[in-house]
Design brief:
Layout (H helix, E strand, L loop, with lengths): L1 E5 L4 H12 L3 E6 L7 H10 L4 E4 L5 H10 L3 E6 L6 H6 L1 H21 L3 E8 L23 H19 L3 E8 L1 E3 L18 H10 L5 E4 L11 E2 L1 E3 H16 L7 E6 L5 E2 H12 L5 E4 L14 H7 L7 H16 L1
Parallel strand pairs: 1-2, 1-4, 2-3, 4-5, 5-6, 6-11, 7-10, 8-13
Antiparallel strand pairs: 9-12
Helix pairs in contact: 1-2, 1-8, 3-5, 5-6, 7-11, 9-11
Bound molecules: uridine-diphosphate-N-acetylglucosamine.
The site of uridine-diphosphate-N-acetylglucosamine has 20 residues, from helix 7 and strand 8.
């Protein structure tokens, strides 16, 4: 079974390629290396004994996508990770985000329509819920107005897929709404490699501990939470990767209840920023230099998943604890800087 993984050399993509290959899928990766490197292929090979087929090109080139599907006409599944994901950058350059995240999505769906259907998995985000009115967040919680063009591309992306599936019964899709993916493969061979200064908490924590950053800024301690800091649902990237294989298998086996489905992917447990810091200090044995500063614009107070649908319908459950995920992130950071 041949599967296209776009953005397959990125953080979540590379971990998913590993799990797909472990399950016997033949993987073709398309990546433009805009936020990844060819070395990731070697990491995947070191873990699975095999490199995926690799095609380096930019998916904004519609002709190249068309040529790709001619060359690989036996691709029956697509997992679409390739997208831009920096919230701040999306505010500065919205058209880049709409072109990369929306334009490309429509090109791929057009090709899948042309080939008479396929199984399609989309990387969505819990950002579609904004600050949800009730916690934990179920898939039925309303989608709130997006805070940024990035967030908007995830909402609009879901709508485009839903509308397309409505009129193409041979096209089957699942949108996976990720909570906060962290950690790295336990082998230490692949992990997260943010470009420049990390915007997300955990890479900033590990880079501070290793000495690349002076100090972690904790954005606000006056939220209405246990200790005043923001609450998120941090999920180990390997657990997340396994959910993609489950979702794809569900579609390939025709187990889906409708041809467009949505699942939350989280652990179901919320952790505050200070709890993340304490957990990190415990598993790494390092003391973290941090200080409390003002809130960051656009941050929600608390978000964690209701995992019942993913557990019962998808048959998937996150296994790793926060400690385990942070330990793997730390091992990876030490490996990369060694
Ligand atoms: C962020 C994005 C979200 C995106 C997700 C992708 C924002 C506002 N949201 O989510 O749209 O889908 O990344 O991974 O950028 N924190 C600090 N100090 C830091 C960094 C973060 O205190 O240097 C805090 C934040 O205030 C938050 C928590 O840590 O409470 C997690 O932050 P982060 O890792 O950036 O994830 P999100 O904000 O949930």
């Amino acid at each position: 079974m041949k599967v296209l993984v776009t953005g397959g050399l990125g953080f979540i993509g590379s971990h998913t390629v590993v799990e797909l290959q472990n399950e016997g899928f033949e993987v073709v990766v398309v990546d433009n290396l805009s936020n990844s490197s060819k070395d990731v292929l070697k990491g995947i090979e070191a873990i699975t004994g095999k490199q995926p087929i690799f095609e380096e090109f930019d998916l904004r080139d519609k002709q190249k996508i068309q040529d790709f599907f001619k060359k690989y006409d036996d691709v029956t599944g697509v997992i679409h990770f390739a997208a831009s994901k920096a919230v701040g950058e999306s505010v500065e350059n919205p058209l880049l985000y709409y072109e990369n995240n929306i334009g490309v999505l429509t090109y791929i769906l057009q090709q899948l329509e042309k080939k008479g259907g396929a199984s399609f998995i989309f990387s969505s985000s819990c950002t579609v819920y904004g600050q949800a009115d009730a916690l934990p967040i179920t898939e039925d919680a309303p989608v709130k107005p997006a805070e940024s063009p990035y967030g908007n591309t995830k909402q609009v992306g879901e709508e485009i897929i839903r509308d397309t599936c409505k009129v193409n019964s041979d096209l089957k899709a699942i949108a996976l709404r990720y909570f906060n993916p962290i950690g790295a493969h336990p082998s230490g061979k692949i992990g997260e490699l943010p470009l420049g200064v990390p915007q997300n908490l955990v890479p900033f924590v590990t880079q501070t501990a290793i000495g690349l950053r002076e100090q972690l800024l904790v954005f606000g301690n006056d939220y209405p939470t246990v200790d005043g800091t923001g609450i998120r649902d941090y999920i180990h990237v390997v657990d997340l990767a396994k959910a993609h294989v489950k979702a794809l298998q569900r579609l390939l086996d025709d187990k889906n209840e409708s041809n467009y489905e949505v699942f939350n992917l989280g652990t179901g447990k919320g952790s505050s920023v200070l709890e993340v810091i304490q957990s990190f200090e415990r598993v790494s044995g390092e003391k973290l230099n941090y200080k409390i500063v003002d809130r960051r614009a656009g941050d929600v107070i608390a978000a964690y998943a209701d995992t019942q649908k993913a557990n019962e319908v998808l048959g998937w459950k996150a296994k790793s604890t926060l400690d385990e995920a942070l330990k793997s992130a730390w091992e990876w950071e030490k490996n990369v800087r060694a």
